[in-house]
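Here we describe the complex-level prediction in full. Unlike the single-chain runs in Section 2.1, the two entities below were treated as one system.
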Amino acid sequence: MTEAILSVAGLRSGYGRTVICDDISLQVSAGQITCIIGPNGAGKSTLLKTIAGVVSAIDGSIRVAGVEMAGLPAARVAGSGMAYVPQEANVFRALTTHENLAMGGWQDEGRTQAARDRVYDMFPDLQPLARVPAGNLSGGQRQMVAFGMALMLEPQVLLLDEPSAGLSPLMVGEMFETVRRVNAEGVAILMVEQNALQGLKTAHEGIVMAAGRIAMQGAASELLNSADVSELYLGSRI
Amino acid sequence: MNLQIFVNALVNAALIAPPAMAFSLLFGVLKFPNFAIGGYITLGAFAAYTFNVPLGLPLPLATLGAMLFTGFVVWLAHVWVFKPMQDQSAVTLLVVSIALTLILESVVRLFFSADVRGFDIPLERPWKFWGARITREQVEIIACAVVLATGLHVLLRHTRIGRAMRAVADNPMLAAIRGVDAAKITALTTVLCGAIFGLTGVFAGLDLVIEPLVGWNLTIPIFAAAILGGIGSPYGAILGALLLGLAEELTILVLPSTYKIAVGFVIIAIFLLLRPQGLFGTAEIKK
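The structure predicted for the assembly as a whole is:
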Protein backbone atom coordinates (compact mmCIF):
# COMPACT_ATOMS: atom_id res chain seq x y z
CA MET A 1 0.00 0.00 0.00
CA THR A 2 1.24 3.53 -0.81
CA GLU A 3 2.03 6.02 1.94
CA ALA A 4 -0.98 7.58 3.73
CA ILE A 5 -1.29 11.32 3.13
CA LEU A 6 -4.23 11.63 5.55
CA SER A 7 -4.43 9.55 8.74
CA VAL A 8 -7.34 9.72 11.14
CA ALA A 9 -7.18 7.72 14.38
CA GLY A 10 -9.74 7.32 17.17
CA LEU A 11 -11.58 10.47 16.09
CA ARG A 12 -14.62 11.59 18.02
CA SER A 13 -16.60 14.74 17.23
CA GLY A 14 -20.06 16.27 17.37
CA TYR A 15 -22.07 19.35 18.20
CA GLY A 16 -22.13 20.49 21.83
CA ARG A 17 -22.52 17.39 23.97
CA THR A 18 -23.96 15.33 21.14
CA VAL A 19 -21.38 12.93 19.72
CA ILE A 20 -21.96 12.36 15.99
CA CYS A 21 -18.77 10.55 14.94
CA ASP A 22 -17.11 8.08 17.27
CA ASP A 23 -13.90 6.06 17.10
CA ILE A 24 -13.22 6.84 13.46
CA SER A 25 -9.93 5.58 12.08
CA LEU A 26 -9.10 5.74 8.39
CA GLN A 27 -6.24 6.38 6.02
CA VAL A 28 -6.20 8.00 2.60
CA SER A 29 -3.23 7.02 0.50
CA ALA A 30 -1.42 9.47 -1.74
CA GLY A 31 -2.99 9.61 -5.19
CA GLN A 32 -6.04 7.54 -4.26
CA ILE A 33 -9.76 8.23 -4.16
CA THR A 34 -11.61 7.07 -1.05
CA CYS A 35 -15.40 7.23 -1.00
CA ILE A 36 -17.49 7.28 2.18
CA ILE A 37 -21.06 6.03 1.79
CA GLY A 38 -23.81 5.40 4.30
CA PRO A 39 -27.37 6.31 5.21
CA ASN A 40 -28.53 9.83 6.08
CA GLY A 41 -27.47 10.78 9.59
CA ALA A 42 -24.53 8.37 9.61
CA GLY A 43 -22.14 11.23 10.35
CA LYS A 44 -20.39 11.31 6.96
CA SER A 45 -20.54 15.08 6.45
CA THR A 46 -19.70 15.75 10.10
CA LEU A 47 -16.61 13.57 9.70
CA LEU A 48 -15.41 15.64 6.72
CA LYS A 49 -16.19 18.88 8.58
CA THR A 50 -14.18 17.64 11.57
CA ILE A 51 -11.19 16.74 9.40
CA ALA A 52 -11.44 20.21 7.77
CA GLY A 53 -11.55 21.95 11.17
CA VAL A 54 -15.10 23.29 10.72
CA VAL A 55 -16.36 21.07 13.58
CA SER A 56 -14.07 20.69 16.60
CA ALA A 57 -12.64 17.25 17.32
CA ILE A 58 -13.43 16.03 20.84
CA ASP A 59 -10.77 13.35 20.80
CA GLY A 60 -8.44 11.57 18.42
CA SER A 61 -5.85 12.46 15.84
CA ILE A 62 -5.95 13.94 12.32
CA ARG A 63 -2.62 13.96 10.50
CA VAL A 64 -1.92 15.44 7.08
CA ALA A 65 1.47 14.38 5.73
CA GLY A 66 2.42 13.56 9.30
CA VAL A 67 1.44 16.95 10.76
CA GLU A 68 -1.21 16.95 13.52
CA MET A 69 -4.31 18.98 12.61
CA ALA A 70 -6.86 17.95 15.27
CA GLY A 71 -8.11 20.97 17.18
CA LEU A 72 -6.94 23.54 14.63
CA PRO A 73 -9.61 25.94 13.29
CA ALA A 74 -10.61 25.78 9.62
CA ALA A 75 -8.60 28.90 8.76
CA ARG A 76 -5.40 27.21 10.01
CA VAL A 77 -6.16 23.87 8.34
CA ALA A 78 -6.60 25.69 4.99
CA GLY A 79 -2.90 26.04 4.34
CA SER A 80 -1.96 22.54 5.47
CA GLY A 81 -2.04 20.81 2.09
CA MET A 82 -5.66 19.76 2.56
CA ALA A 83 -8.65 21.55 0.98
CA TYR A 84 -12.32 21.05 1.75
CA VAL A 85 -15.27 21.59 -0.60
CA PRO A 86 -18.54 21.80 1.38
CA GLN A 87 -21.73 20.30 -0.01
CA GLU A 88 -23.71 23.55 0.01
CA ALA A 89 -22.73 27.21 -0.19
CA ASN A 90 -19.34 26.20 -1.57
CA VAL A 91 -18.75 29.38 -3.62
CA PHE A 92 -18.92 33.09 -2.82
CA ARG A 93 -22.07 33.96 -4.76
CA ALA A 94 -21.44 37.72 -4.85
CA LEU A 95 -17.87 37.30 -6.15
CA THR A 96 -16.96 36.57 -9.76
CA THR A 97 -15.37 33.28 -10.82
CA HIS A 98 -12.01 35.10 -11.01
CA GLU A 99 -12.44 36.51 -7.50
CA ASN A 100 -13.58 33.14 -6.13
CA LEU A 101 -10.38 31.56 -7.41
CA ALA A 102 -8.38 34.39 -5.85
CA MET A 103 -10.06 33.62 -2.52
CA GLY A 104 -8.97 30.01 -2.96
CA GLY A 105 -5.39 31.27 -3.07
CA TRP A 106 -5.86 33.68 -0.15
CA GLN A 107 -3.08 32.10 1.92
CA ASP A 108 -0.45 32.42 -0.79
CA GLU A 109 -1.28 35.51 -2.85
CA GLY A 110 2.13 35.36 -4.52
CA ARG A 111 1.26 32.38 -6.63
CA THR A 112 -2.40 33.24 -7.27
CA GLN A 113 -1.89 34.20 -10.92
CA ALA A 114 0.00 31.00 -11.80
CA ALA A 115 -2.43 28.86 -9.80
CA ARG A 116 -5.43 30.51 -11.48
CA ASP A 117 -3.94 29.85 -14.94
CA ARG A 118 -3.46 26.22 -13.95
CA VAL A 119 -7.10 25.95 -12.77
CA TYR A 120 -8.32 27.55 -16.03
CA ASP A 121 -6.22 24.99 -17.93
CA MET A 122 -7.84 22.21 -15.94
CA PHE A 123 -11.37 23.67 -16.32
CA PRO A 124 -11.35 25.58 -19.63
CA ASP A 125 -15.12 26.12 -19.38
CA LEU A 126 -14.46 28.51 -16.48
CA GLN A 127 -12.36 30.94 -18.51
CA PRO A 128 -15.30 32.64 -20.31
CA LEU A 129 -17.10 32.86 -16.94
CA ALA A 130 -14.22 34.69 -15.24
CA ARG A 131 -16.20 37.95 -14.81
CA VAL A 132 -19.54 36.32 -13.99
CA PRO A 133 -20.71 36.35 -10.34
CA ALA A 134 -20.77 32.78 -9.05
CA GLY A 135 -24.38 33.25 -7.94
CA ASN A 136 -25.37 33.53 -11.62
CA LEU A 137 -23.74 30.21 -12.62
CA SER A 138 -25.47 26.85 -13.06
CA GLY A 139 -25.08 24.13 -10.41
CA GLY A 140 -22.44 22.31 -12.46
CA GLN A 141 -20.48 25.51 -13.16
CA ARG A 142 -20.59 26.44 -9.48
CA GLN A 143 -19.26 22.99 -8.59
CA MET A 144 -16.36 23.57 -11.01
CA VAL A 145 -15.63 26.94 -9.38
CA ALA A 146 -15.70 25.25 -5.95
CA PHE A 147 -13.25 22.59 -7.17
CA GLY A 148 -11.03 25.22 -8.75
CA MET A 149 -11.01 27.31 -5.59
CA ALA A 150 -10.01 24.28 -3.53
CA LEU A 151 -7.20 23.45 -5.97
CA MET A 152 -5.65 26.94 -5.90
CA LEU A 153 -3.17 26.04 -3.14
CA GLU A 154 -2.26 22.73 -4.82
CA PRO A 155 -3.51 20.53 -1.97
CA GLN A 156 -2.23 16.99 -1.50
CA VAL A 157 -5.64 15.85 -0.35
CA LEU A 158 -9.09 17.11 -1.29
CA LEU A 159 -12.19 16.60 0.91
CA LEU A 160 -15.41 16.56 -1.14
CA ASP A 161 -18.80 16.58 0.55
CA GLU A 162 -21.39 15.08 -1.81
CA PRO A 163 -20.04 16.66 -5.00
CA SER A 164 -22.93 15.26 -7.09
CA ALA A 165 -25.69 16.65 -4.84
CA GLY A 166 -28.21 18.79 -6.70
CA LEU A 167 -26.71 18.17 -10.15
CA SER A 168 -28.65 16.95 -13.18
CA PRO A 169 -28.03 13.29 -14.20
CA LEU A 170 -25.88 14.51 -17.13
CA MET A 171 -23.83 16.76 -14.87
CA VAL A 172 -23.34 13.96 -12.32
CA GLY A 173 -21.38 11.92 -14.88
CA GLU A 174 -19.26 14.97 -15.77
CA MET A 175 -18.66 15.71 -12.11
CA PHE A 176 -17.30 12.21 -11.39
CA GLU A 177 -15.12 12.55 -14.50
CA THR A 178 -13.80 15.80 -13.01
CA VAL A 179 -13.02 13.98 -9.77
CA ARG A 180 -10.99 11.41 -11.73
CA ARG A 181 -9.16 14.18 -13.63
CA VAL A 182 -8.25 16.01 -10.42
CA ASN A 183 -7.06 12.73 -8.93
CA ALA A 184 -4.99 12.03 -12.06
CA GLU A 185 -3.08 15.24 -11.23
CA GLY A 186 -1.84 13.46 -8.10
CA VAL A 187 -4.40 14.80 -5.61
CA ALA A 188 -5.71 12.26 -3.08
CA ILE A 189 -9.48 12.55 -2.58
CA LEU A 190 -11.71 11.69 0.35
CA MET A 191 -15.30 12.16 -0.69
CA VAL A 192 -18.69 11.59 0.86
CA GLU A 193 -21.32 10.47 -1.65
CA GLN A 194 -25.02 9.67 -1.48
CA ASN A 195 -24.73 8.29 -5.01
CA ALA A 196 -23.05 5.19 -3.61
CA LEU A 197 -22.84 3.27 -6.88
CA GLN A 198 -21.13 6.06 -8.86
CA GLY A 199 -19.01 7.01 -5.87
CA LEU A 200 -17.63 3.50 -5.37
CA LYS A 201 -17.13 3.05 -9.12
CA THR A 202 -14.99 6.20 -9.13
CA ALA A 203 -13.05 5.38 -5.94
CA HIS A 204 -10.14 3.05 -5.21
CA GLU A 205 -11.11 2.58 -1.56
CA GLY A 206 -14.51 2.60 0.10
CA ILE A 207 -15.81 3.19 3.61
CA VAL A 208 -19.33 2.45 4.86
CA MET A 209 -20.47 4.54 7.82
CA ALA A 210 -23.50 3.86 10.00
CA ALA A 211 -24.60 5.54 13.25
CA GLY A 212 -21.42 7.59 13.49
CA ARG A 213 -19.02 4.68 13.16
CA ILE A 214 -17.21 2.89 10.38
CA ALA A 215 -19.18 -0.26 9.59
CA MET A 216 -17.05 -1.56 6.71
CA GLN A 217 -14.00 -0.50 4.74
CA GLY A 218 -11.94 -1.97 1.96
CA ALA A 219 -11.29 -1.79 -1.76
CA ALA A 220 -14.15 -0.02 -3.56
CA SER A 221 -14.49 -2.95 -5.97
CA GLU A 222 -14.92 -5.34 -3.04
CA LEU A 223 -17.63 -3.14 -1.49
CA LEU A 224 -19.37 -2.91 -4.86
CA ASN A 225 -19.54 -6.71 -4.94
CA SER A 226 -20.52 -7.10 -1.29
CA ALA A 227 -24.03 -8.46 -0.89
CA ASP A 228 -24.61 -6.39 2.29
CA VAL A 229 -23.55 -3.12 0.67
CA SER A 230 -25.54 -3.89 -2.46
CA GLU A 231 -28.68 -4.63 -0.52
CA LEU A 232 -28.44 -1.66 1.82
CA TYR A 233 -26.91 1.11 -0.27
CA LEU A 234 -26.89 0.21 -3.95
CA GLY A 235 -30.56 -0.68 -4.36
CA SER A 236 -31.39 -3.83 -6.34
CA ARG A 237 -28.20 -3.84 -8.39
CA ILE A 238 -27.68 -7.60 -7.83
CA MET B 1 -38.60 72.05 -12.44
CA ASN B 2 -36.64 74.05 -9.89
CA LEU B 3 -32.89 73.34 -10.03
CA GLN B 4 -32.75 74.01 -6.29
CA ILE B 5 -34.66 70.75 -5.71
CA PHE B 6 -31.93 68.78 -7.46
CA VAL B 7 -29.19 70.64 -5.59
CA ASN B 8 -30.90 69.90 -2.27
CA ALA B 9 -31.46 66.28 -3.29
CA LEU B 10 -27.79 65.94 -4.19
CA VAL B 11 -26.68 67.38 -0.85
CA ASN B 12 -29.12 65.07 0.96
CA ALA B 13 -27.79 62.11 -1.00
CA ALA B 14 -24.19 63.08 -0.25
CA LEU B 15 -25.06 63.18 3.44
CA ILE B 16 -26.89 59.86 3.41
CA ALA B 17 -24.92 57.76 0.86
CA PRO B 18 -21.65 57.21 2.79
CA PRO B 19 -23.33 56.04 6.04
CA ALA B 20 -25.83 53.98 4.01
CA MET B 21 -22.88 52.23 2.33
CA ALA B 22 -21.27 51.68 5.73
CA PHE B 23 -24.58 50.44 7.16
CA SER B 24 -24.83 47.94 4.28
CA LEU B 25 -21.23 46.82 4.72
CA LEU B 26 -21.76 46.36 8.44
CA PHE B 27 -24.98 44.44 7.82
CA GLY B 28 -23.07 42.19 5.44
CA VAL B 29 -20.55 41.05 8.02
CA LEU B 30 -22.66 41.23 11.20
CA LYS B 31 -25.99 40.06 9.69
CA PHE B 32 -28.27 42.41 11.62
CA PRO B 33 -29.46 46.01 11.04
CA ASN B 34 -27.31 48.03 13.41
CA PHE B 35 -29.37 51.01 14.60
CA ALA B 36 -26.53 52.16 16.84
CA ILE B 37 -25.39 54.14 13.78
CA GLY B 38 -27.40 57.10 15.10
CA GLY B 39 -25.31 57.15 18.27
CA TYR B 40 -22.08 56.67 16.29
CA ILE B 41 -22.90 59.66 14.03
CA THR B 42 -23.75 61.86 17.04
CA LEU B 43 -20.49 60.80 18.68
CA GLY B 44 -18.58 61.69 15.49
CA ALA B 45 -20.20 65.12 15.34
CA PHE B 46 -19.37 65.91 18.98
CA ALA B 47 -15.84 64.47 18.74
CA ALA B 48 -15.14 66.74 15.76
CA TYR B 49 -16.74 69.66 17.64
CA THR B 50 -14.49 68.98 20.65
CA PHE B 51 -11.35 68.85 18.51
CA ASN B 52 -12.42 71.91 16.50
CA VAL B 53 -13.91 74.34 19.03
CA PRO B 54 -12.59 73.73 22.59
CA LEU B 55 -9.23 72.32 21.38
CA GLY B 56 -8.90 74.74 18.46
CA LEU B 57 -7.81 72.27 15.75
CA PRO B 58 -8.61 73.14 12.13
CA LEU B 59 -11.69 71.31 10.83
CA PRO B 60 -9.82 68.86 8.52
CA LEU B 61 -7.70 67.69 11.46
CA ALA B 62 -10.72 67.62 13.75
CA THR B 63 -12.52 65.49 11.14
CA LEU B 64 -9.64 63.03 11.01
CA GLY B 65 -9.61 62.86 14.82
CA ALA B 66 -13.39 62.26 14.88
CA MET B 67 -13.10 59.48 12.29
CA LEU B 68 -10.37 57.73 14.29
CA PHE B 69 -12.32 58.15 17.53
CA THR B 70 -15.59 56.86 16.10
CA GLY B 71 -13.82 53.98 14.37
CA PHE B 72 -12.36 52.99 17.74
CA VAL B 73 -15.74 53.29 19.51
CA VAL B 74 -17.52 51.18 16.87
CA TRP B 75 -14.82 48.52 17.14
CA LEU B 76 -15.14 48.62 20.94
CA ALA B 77 -18.93 48.26 20.69
CA HIS B 78 -18.41 45.26 18.41
CA VAL B 79 -15.99 43.57 20.82
CA TRP B 80 -17.81 44.40 24.07
CA VAL B 81 -21.46 44.39 23.06
CA PHE B 82 -22.24 42.61 19.78
CA LYS B 83 -19.57 39.89 19.60
CA PRO B 84 -20.52 38.28 22.94
CA MET B 85 -24.14 38.25 21.69
CA GLN B 86 -23.42 36.97 18.17
CA ASP B 87 -25.46 33.79 18.69
CA GLN B 88 -28.59 35.84 19.48
CA SER B 89 -31.25 36.50 16.84
CA ALA B 90 -31.03 39.52 14.51
CA VAL B 91 -34.10 41.03 16.24
CA THR B 92 -32.40 40.82 19.66
CA LEU B 93 -29.26 42.47 18.29
CA LEU B 94 -31.36 45.16 16.61
CA VAL B 95 -33.01 46.00 19.95
CA VAL B 96 -29.60 46.04 21.67
CA SER B 97 -28.30 48.40 18.97
CA ILE B 98 -31.23 50.80 19.59
CA ALA B 99 -30.41 50.67 23.32
CA LEU B 100 -26.77 51.42 22.53
CA THR B 101 -27.67 54.46 20.45
CA LEU B 102 -29.81 55.79 23.35
CA ILE B 103 -26.91 55.23 25.77
CA LEU B 104 -24.43 57.01 23.48
CA GLU B 105 -26.79 59.96 23.01
CA SER B 106 -27.36 60.17 26.77
CA VAL B 107 -23.61 60.20 27.40
CA VAL B 108 -23.24 63.03 24.86
CA ARG B 109 -26.11 64.92 26.52
CA LEU B 110 -24.44 64.40 29.92
CA PHE B 111 -21.20 66.04 28.80
CA PHE B 112 -22.46 68.61 26.28
CA SER B 113 -26.12 69.27 27.32
CA ALA B 114 -28.85 69.45 24.67
CA ASP B 115 -27.63 72.81 23.33
CA VAL B 116 -27.26 73.30 19.60
CA ARG B 117 -23.66 73.86 18.53
CA GLY B 118 -21.68 74.51 15.38
CA PHE B 119 -18.11 74.23 14.07
CA ASP B 120 -15.70 77.13 14.17
CA ILE B 121 -15.75 77.98 10.48
CA PRO B 122 -16.10 81.34 8.75
CA LEU B 123 -19.58 82.29 7.60
CA GLU B 124 -19.82 82.72 3.84
CA ARG B 125 -22.61 83.65 1.47
CA PRO B 126 -23.93 80.74 -0.60
CA TRP B 127 -22.87 80.53 -4.23
CA LYS B 128 -25.61 81.17 -6.77
CA PHE B 129 -25.95 79.60 -10.21
CA TRP B 130 -28.99 79.42 -12.53
CA GLY B 131 -31.23 80.43 -9.67
CA ALA B 132 -29.99 77.72 -7.30
CA ARG B 133 -27.98 78.29 -4.15
CA ILE B 134 -25.34 76.06 -2.59
CA THR B 135 -22.93 76.69 0.27
CA ARG B 136 -19.20 76.00 0.20
CA GLU B 137 -19.72 73.34 2.93
CA GLN B 138 -22.35 71.59 0.83
CA VAL B 139 -19.99 71.44 -2.15
CA GLU B 140 -17.32 70.01 0.14
CA ILE B 141 -19.79 67.40 1.45
CA ILE B 142 -20.66 66.35 -2.13
CA ALA B 143 -16.99 66.21 -3.14
CA CYS B 144 -16.05 64.18 -0.03
CA ALA B 145 -18.97 61.77 -0.61
CA VAL B 146 -17.89 61.20 -4.23
CA VAL B 147 -14.26 60.61 -3.20
CA LEU B 148 -15.38 58.28 -0.39
CA ALA B 149 -17.71 56.27 -2.65
CA THR B 150 -14.95 55.94 -5.25
CA GLY B 151 -12.47 54.93 -2.56
CA LEU B 152 -14.86 52.33 -1.19
CA HIS B 153 -15.40 50.98 -4.69
CA VAL B 154 -11.65 50.65 -5.24
CA LEU B 155 -11.22 49.05 -1.81
CA LEU B 156 -14.01 46.51 -2.28
CA ARG B 157 -13.34 45.62 -5.93
CA HIS B 158 -9.61 46.00 -6.38
CA THR B 159 -7.87 45.17 -3.12
CA ARG B 160 -7.21 41.92 -1.32
CA ILE B 161 -8.73 43.19 1.93
CA GLY B 162 -11.84 44.48 0.16
CA ARG B 163 -12.33 41.15 -1.59
CA ALA B 164 -12.02 39.41 1.78
CA MET B 165 -14.62 41.81 3.26
CA ARG B 166 -17.06 40.86 0.50
CA ALA B 167 -16.22 37.18 0.91
CA VAL B 168 -16.81 37.26 4.68
CA ALA B 169 -20.09 39.15 4.13
CA ASP B 170 -21.14 36.58 1.52
CA ASN B 171 -20.17 33.35 3.27
CA PRO B 172 -18.16 33.61 6.50
CA MET B 173 -17.81 29.84 6.92
CA LEU B 174 -16.39 29.35 3.42
CA ALA B 175 -14.08 32.32 3.98
CA ALA B 176 -12.69 30.56 7.07
CA ILE B 177 -12.34 27.31 5.12
CA ARG B 178 -10.25 29.19 2.55
CA GLY B 179 -7.99 30.51 5.31
CA VAL B 180 -9.42 34.00 5.88
CA ASP B 181 -9.33 35.21 9.49
CA ALA B 182 -12.99 36.28 9.52
CA ALA B 183 -12.69 37.88 12.98
CA LYS B 184 -9.87 40.15 11.80
CA ILE B 185 -11.75 41.13 8.63
CA THR B 186 -14.91 41.84 10.66
CA ALA B 187 -12.91 44.04 13.06
CA LEU B 188 -11.40 45.94 10.13
CA THR B 189 -14.86 46.44 8.62
CA THR B 190 -16.24 47.82 11.90
CA VAL B 191 -13.35 50.31 12.19
CA LEU B 192 -13.80 51.42 8.56
CA CYS B 193 -17.56 51.83 8.98
CA GLY B 194 -17.02 53.63 12.29
CA ALA B 195 -14.74 56.13 10.56
CA ILE B 196 -17.43 56.71 7.90
CA PHE B 197 -20.06 57.30 10.62
CA GLY B 198 -17.64 59.77 12.24
CA LEU B 199 -17.28 61.61 8.93
CA THR B 200 -21.07 61.65 8.56
CA GLY B 201 -21.25 63.32 11.98
CA VAL B 202 -19.00 66.08 10.63
CA PHE B 203 -21.10 66.40 7.44
CA ALA B 204 -24.27 66.63 9.56
CA GLY B 205 -22.63 69.28 11.75
CA LEU B 206 -21.77 71.30 8.62
CA ASP B 207 -25.11 70.97 6.83
CA LEU B 208 -27.49 70.74 9.82
CA VAL B 209 -26.56 71.44 13.45
CA ILE B 210 -24.62 69.61 16.15
CA GLU B 211 -27.04 68.34 18.79
CA PRO B 212 -27.52 64.99 20.57
CA LEU B 213 -30.30 63.86 18.20
CA VAL B 214 -28.42 64.65 14.99
CA GLY B 215 -27.55 60.99 14.41
CA TRP B 216 -30.96 59.62 15.34
CA ASN B 217 -32.63 62.01 12.86
CA LEU B 218 -30.47 60.56 10.09
CA THR B 219 -31.01 56.91 11.04
CA ILE B 220 -34.32 56.36 9.23
CA PRO B 221 -33.18 58.02 5.95
CA ILE B 222 -29.95 55.95 6.08
CA PHE B 223 -31.89 52.75 6.73
CA ALA B 224 -34.37 53.67 3.96
CA ALA B 225 -31.54 54.30 1.46
CA ALA B 226 -29.92 50.98 2.36
CA ILE B 227 -33.23 49.10 1.98
CA LEU B 228 -34.02 50.92 -1.27
CA GLY B 229 -30.67 49.98 -2.77
CA GLY B 230 -30.77 46.43 -1.40
CA ILE B 231 -29.48 45.91 2.11
CA GLY B 232 -26.00 44.43 2.04
CA SER B 233 -25.26 46.11 -1.31
CA PRO B 234 -23.00 49.16 -0.77
CA TYR B 235 -23.45 50.25 -4.40
CA GLY B 236 -27.21 50.02 -4.16
CA ALA B 237 -26.98 52.28 -1.10
CA ILE B 238 -25.59 55.11 -3.27
CA LEU B 239 -28.52 54.94 -5.69
CA GLY B 240 -30.87 54.49 -2.73
CA ALA B 241 -29.54 57.70 -1.18
CA LEU B 242 -29.95 59.62 -4.44
CA LEU B 243 -33.52 58.42 -4.94
CA LEU B 244 -34.40 59.08 -1.31
CA GLY B 245 -32.91 62.58 -1.47
CA LEU B 246 -34.95 63.33 -4.59
CA ALA B 247 -38.13 61.82 -3.09
CA GLU B 248 -37.73 63.92 0.08
CA GLU B 249 -37.23 67.14 -1.88
CA LEU B 250 -40.14 66.45 -4.25
CA THR B 251 -42.37 65.80 -1.24
CA ILE B 252 -41.76 69.39 -0.10
CA LEU B 253 -43.43 70.60 -3.29
CA VAL B 254 -46.77 69.14 -2.24
CA LEU B 255 -46.53 68.70 1.55
CA PRO B 256 -45.18 70.78 4.46
CA SER B 257 -41.47 70.09 5.08
CA THR B 258 -42.29 68.54 8.48
CA TYR B 259 -43.53 65.47 6.55
CA LYS B 260 -40.13 65.04 4.87
CA ILE B 261 -39.03 62.56 7.55
CA ALA B 262 -42.04 60.37 6.70
CA VAL B 263 -40.67 59.73 3.18
CA GLY B 264 -38.08 57.32 4.58
CA PHE B 265 -40.74 55.36 6.46
CA VAL B 266 -43.00 55.18 3.40
CA ILE B 267 -40.12 53.94 1.21
CA ILE B 268 -39.18 51.32 3.81
CA ALA B 269 -42.80 50.13 3.99
CA ILE B 270 -43.26 50.02 0.20
CA PHE B 271 -40.02 48.16 -0.47
CA LEU B 272 -40.43 45.70 2.40
CA LEU B 273 -43.87 44.85 1.01
CA LEU B 274 -43.16 44.81 -2.72
CA ARG B 275 -39.43 44.23 -3.19
CA PRO B 276 -37.77 43.36 0.12
CA GLN B 277 -34.45 42.64 -1.62
CA GLY B 278 -34.31 46.30 -2.77
CA LEU B 279 -33.13 47.46 -6.19
CA PHE B 280 -29.78 45.64 -6.16
CA GLY B 281 -30.29 42.87 -3.60
CA THR B 282 -30.80 39.22 -4.53
CA ALA B 283 -34.06 37.49 -3.68
CA GLU B 284 -33.56 34.30 -1.69
CA ILE B 285 -36.01 31.45 -1.36
CA LYS B 286 -36.27 30.00 2.14
CA LYS B 287 -36.57 26.23 1.94
